[in-house]
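Possible regression after last week's pipeline update?

I re-ran a chain I had predicted before the update to compare outputs. Posting the input and the new output here so someone can diff against the archived version. Not blocking, just want to make sure nothing changed silently.
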Amino acid sequence: MRGKGRRFAAGWWVLLACWVLLPAVACAKGPAAPAAKGPVLVVGDSLSAAHNIPVQDGWVNLLGQRLKQQMKAPPAVVNASISGETTSGALTRLPGLLARHTPSVVVIELGGNDALRGLTPAQLHGNLEKMIQLSRDAGAKVLLLGIDVPPNYGPAYRQRLRASYAELAKKYDVALLPFLLEGVALQPGLMQADGLHPTAAAQPKLLDNVWPVLEPLL
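New output (post-update):
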């Protein structure tokens, strides 16, 4: 019996040592590596496609640089913006983009060309809504970047356009930047001669507009 008691006591101490030491061993290995994040997918028009300026100077490219500076494991940035793009064209392309890139965040910057081509705010609203739904169904968070149009479109049209972004953001609880060109539009030196597209000098300001609403999604 004494021999059995000694063996039992020895076994108990071995088991106790395992309980004590295992957590220390686990801690020594450090925390588990974070899961890889999908990229930030930017679906926009010429305002995000670096129209008539070097691509590396565009705000989307500057976003990629900032992420690398501020994050240990930054997500990639995929710029799927096309000059002249409408909400209808982007909606057609979006399913393929989501399947190809599996983004963690989708930034939607569209609407200016819809207005230029005479589409109604209701059409824009419907297309953006479908893009939000597709993005969320794919597991991505969404950021809407709103636009405005010149006063000659009339106050009623402008109000309905702005309201579309606000209503969608509230309905689907997605992030919203009401006006991408805040502090840039109509500013000398920050807009190109056409009065529609920001200059290279304006791109850091565009990124500063986007960053506060995008960063929490990352």
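Follow-up from reviewer: compared with the archived run. Confidence is low (pLDDT under 50) at residues 4-36. Marking as no regression found.
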